[in-house]
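Teaching assistant here, posting this on the class forum so everyone can see the example we discussed in section. The complex has two components, and the goal was to see what a joint structure prediction looks like when all of them are supplied at once.
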Amino acid sequence: MSETLTSERMNGRTSEKKTRRKLQHRYLRLRRNMIIIMVLVTIVPLTLMLLINAFQYQSKIKSERIEPMRAIVNKSTHSFELFLEERISAIRFLASSYTFKQLSEQKILNQVYHDLRDTFGGYVDLGLINSKGIQVSYAGPYELLNKDYSEQQWFQEVQVRGTYISDVFMGYRKFPHIALAAQHLKPDGTFWVLRATMDTKKFDNLIAAMGLSPISDAFIINPNGILQTESQFYGDVLEECRLSVPRGGAGTHVTEKTDPNGREVFQISSNFLKHDYTLVTVIPREIILKSWHSLRQEMILIFIISFVAILMVIFWVTTQLVKRIQDADERREAAFRNLEYTQKLSSIGRLAAGVAHEINNPLSIINEKAGLLKDLVEHDRYQDKDKLLKMTASINQSVNRCKSITQRLLGFARQIGVHYEMLDVNEVLKETIGFLKKEAISKNIHTRYELDEELSKISSDRGQLQQVFLNIINNAFAAVEKGGEVALKTREVDAYTIAASISDNGTGMTNETLKQIFEPFFTTNKQYGTGLGLSITYGIVKKLGGDIKVQSKLGEGSTFTIYLPKKQAGEQNE
Amino acid sequence: MNKVKVLLVDDEEEFVSALAERLDIRGIEAHVATDGEQALEMIENDTFPVIVLDVIMPGISGLEVMQRINAKQIDTVVILLTGHGSTKEGLEGMRMGAFDYLMKPLDIDELISKMHEAIESKNS
């Protein structure tokens, strides 16, 4: 006996531990889900906003910084073109202001050459070439007299276009030079060409005038990518530029790229209109985006701070919330246990009243029979032996009645702690209704039994089942009028479940009521009801692994069906 | 002093018959009814100064019997019997004009003195 008790207690303790662990796990999961959801709804928009802002700021700052650069490049291109135009115009002017004869004379050519140098600067030599491509006269440091240019490309070109500007070449004293030539065409078809070379110092001046930062770069290339001016980073004059520059159409083109030195740069290129040159400006990204970088740093810092703050708040809030929920759950659980206990007490009270009624009747009989015996003895009237025997038999019968009542009561008294045993539900039902016999009689209620005699025994707790049946039968009795009927049915549902149903032909319930009957403190009987009976009943049935279903129609009555498992969960199949 | 005449109404036949016999031994003329209907019939055909009435009975309950007695304005005093003192039926019965109620199991001397009290109260 004591052994089974301890083992039961042990089982109870381990299962309690298991449920506690399960609960703990549930709260952890709840907390995790809350954190995930909160993080998603806060961090995701924040991140999106940051990215969108960053992108917008970056492009805004970029365009704000690029636009002036583009303007400068445009202007410089224009200056270059003006400069070249001016120089070529000077040559054209000279070619047309003198006759071929005048220019053929060395003295006059020398004079013109000096005037040209003094006026414009940068000119190195000047030469006259006749229509056969022969250098007729020459002023300058080279020995070029009588040189034949007829086969050279520039000579062909100058005949077609009227003017010609060469690419840069290394000339006199190892300075980069360009050659300029202008054709003078007379009405009779004869022509001559005036050709001059000049150094490209002016190019450097124009580039310097752009006022770029020391780590930026600007240079001119020809269509073959040959540098026409010196580049800081991509090669020397007349070398091939190490930076590939795409030849766009007219206007300026901005591209972002990584240069051969591995720097992130913006490249702004602009093609000359009248000449096959491209002015290329290369500005490191860091210069363009300097203000953006500091802004970006601030943004990232703010983002990190808010991220951490949000995370901390979320963690704190969820921890608090889950703790509150847990506390509330525990409090509710405790309150519910308390209610259950109260309910148990009140049902025991009801029982006690019923039992008192029940026991008082046989006791009264015993009392009167014993009293009568005493009276007979006192009045010397006990000769009638049969009568005396009948009296003692009646006394014994009444004692047996009391005994059966106390036995039934003991079944109820075993309610402390869940105790599973094999039960015959039919018997439990009959026993329970026995307690309410008095009430049935006083209200003149007819009880009808439709019990399945073949019903299999189930493993359940007698006391708890009795409480369930008592509550529901009590409600049924309360619902019927005098002379009403309560029917008790049992049946097999399937291999694992049986059902016991308690029907009455009483008042029935509205759908509104039906929705709330299992709520604690819901009662239709304001005078005597605590509103706990059915909620406790529901709790007990769930605890026993069963279920309750209710059907009701107003004015026609209600049926409560209790489904019970034949075996408790976790029990071995035998 | 003429003989006290009483009607005992209770569904427990063994109880009422024994009680009636004991009252007879004590010189009280006791008549027995085992349900409400029989009791009402007997009241119709006879006069009882005192009626001892069990509250809870199948069919017509003790309280209903009282109502009928009140309705017919029968000159009698009712003493109720209850299973225990604090039931609403006992109190209800007192409200309806029962002289007193007694708890089962009975003390016969108490019952007899109550009956005398009741008769005196009626006569005064």
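For the discussion questions: The radius of gyration of chain B is 13 Å. Residues 108-123 of chain B form the longest helix (16 residues). Think about how each of these relates to the inputs above.
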